[in-house]
Design a protein that fits this description.
The chain contains 16 helices and no strands. The chain has about 325 residues and is mainly α. The termini are far apart. About 35% of the residues are buried. The model has no long low-confidence stretch (mean pLDDT about 90).
Length: about 325
């Protein structure tokens, strides 16, 4: 694998998956086979979130954690200001009250309401950043296999505790059932730049094709919610890993600056679609009365606005940094 090289392209794919999940209007008749295939890929495009968690954990494994303070400051400063900016925008837009804004901004609303919390994905990432250096140091005295096993056992115990002991108080199953993807990201990072093309093709194919069947059966046709509410996310892992192996191979030598630019604006794209996505799609459909055109325009506008916002935020950070150093 060469995921450190193809990360931005993979993140662009994940971001587009998430956008399709939230914004895409099915075009084909639901009773037709093409329509069923379209709805399957749109409905299961939530795997973009799992891809993003995997990639984040994978690259985190190469981070310098000798200073936990510097590590956390660097990670939090990249995404929390953007998160806070969109929380303020949502407050102005009337999406929640002042108390709701405060609870969301400090992450308590996510702990209480999980996936229904505004921009839940960002507090979940912050939690991952917060615990990562401490867990890595704690597990460093064990070999790799034991690290993975201990992590799985702790995850299972915590998930059962939240699912059956703290139900009604905490609802973060949407994040906990993505933890196996995070663990796999950390585990597979040890094999960066070691697998041959042949091994990646074989492994990716063997995982992806059966993974499609699993995700169809347990994530689309009949969502699996036993023993955890979000168990269907876990059944998608073979498909997700297969995609990563195959896309990593494809984009190893065939990526582009445009795709990588989208990959660098994934946070902004996610926040924008949650804040204004439904209104954007509704407005475009009223104007065009055409589902295909609405889908194309909504994705194009979302991408362009995300790129512009990411550029503006980057420019503002550079300006602040230069003033602080002057």
């Amino acid at each position: 694998m060469q995921i450190l090289k193809t990360k931005k392209s993979l993140m662009a794919f994940a971001a587009l998956q998430i956008a399709i999940f939230h914004l895409w209007i099915p075009v084909l008749r639901a009773s037709s086979l093409p329509g069923q295939i379209e709805r399957f890929f749109v409905t299961t495009a939530y795997i973009g979130v799992d891809l993003f968690f995997f990639l984040s954990a994978y690259t985190l494994s190469f981070s310098d954690i000798s200073s936990k303070r510097k590590f956390l400051n660097k990670r939090f400063s990249k995404i929390y200001p953007v998160f806070l900016l969109f929380c303020v925008a949502a407050l102005i837009k009337g999406k929640f009250t002042l108390s709701g804004f405060l609870l969301t901004a400090i992450g308590l609303d996510f702990l209480r309401h999980g996936g229904s919390s505004f921009l839940w994905f960002v507090p979940a990432l912050l939690i991952m950043y917060l615990v990562f250096p401490f867990i890595k140091v704690t597990l460093s005295k064990f070999n790799q296999a034991k690290q993975f096993l201990i992590s799985l056992l702790v995850w299972a115990a915590l998930t059962f505790a939240v699912e059956y002991g703290l139900r009604g108080l905490i609802d973060i199953s949407i994040f906990l059932c993505r933890v196996p993807a995070i663990l796999l990201g950390v585990f597979l990072s040890k094999y960066e730049d070691t697998w041959t093309i042949k091994h990646r093709v074989i492994t990716g194919t063997l995982l992806f094709l059966p993974g499609l069947i699993l995700i169809y059966q347990f994530g689309y046709y009949d969502r699996l919610t036993v023993p955890f509410e979000g168990m269907f996310y876990i059944t998608a892992l073979p498909c997700i890993l297969g995609l990563i192996f195959l896309l990593d191979l494809i984009w190893q030598n065939h990526s582009s600056r445009a795709i990588e630019a989208i990959g660098g604006a994934t946070l902004e794209m996610y926040c924008l679609q949650i804040l204004i996505g439904s209104e954007l799609v509704s407005t475009l459909f009223r104007l065009t009365h055409n589902k295909i055109l609405t889908n194309l325009l909504s994705l194009t506008i979302l991408i362009l606005c995300s790129l512009a916002l990411a550029w503006g935020i980057s420019a503002a950070r550079k300006l602040i940094f230069s003033k602080n150093n002057s």
